Amino acid sequence: MSGTVRLDRLLANLGYGSRSEVQQLVRLGVVMLDGRTADDASIGVSITADLPARLSVDGQPLDPLPGIALMLHKPVGATCSHKEVGRLVYDLLPPRWRRREPALSTVGRLDKETSGLLLLTDDGALLHRIISPKKHVTKHYVATLARPLRGDEAARFAAGTLMLEGETKALAPAVMEILSSISARVIVTEGRYHQVRRMFAAVGNHVEALHRDRIGGLGLPADLGPGEYRQMSPADVAAIFS
Of 133, 145, 231, 242, which is the most buried if we count CB atoms within 10 A? Predict the structure, then answer.
């Protein structure tokens, strides 16, 4: 979003309500722009980087403008979906963010029982850049296994010949580092359905717990607890591709 946008359209697109509901907020005098009460919902607002500091609603700074990118520490039990029954990752965000336009979407998915670093954005170009096979952005997982490692798993993952059940195309080579007799770090560049779990199933093991701690060069911050999120800086986004 750039240029000048009507105040009511801007706030509606950020999820503050319908156009008529936003107009009611303005009439109630709870929208402030540049230190003054906004009294006309149809005024044009210049979209600048400092707008969240210039515009407030009900005493709170404006929500992030479109083009937002978030990192979230996904907890076990939350689903990466807009529609499924049960706890959703979007429930961890402010409720009105569910109504943003353009909508926030997860950058790929983590299954319900997998925890760790999850990215969300409303920037379609950024989303596709991260998930594009041509970019070879790595995803780093720590797997806890039901049975001890045999010792040949790393070689089989790296060979580029491993087949997943029900598929006809071999996986791209992946890196595996043994952490203990029943845990390993796995680094993949693809994003197939339940890929890491199915990789271990293909070599006769079962993943008991799975955690993603890095996407490309971006690690999950140690101070970001399960269920917490933060807005990504340009440096964070750049780190993904470093």
Answer: 145
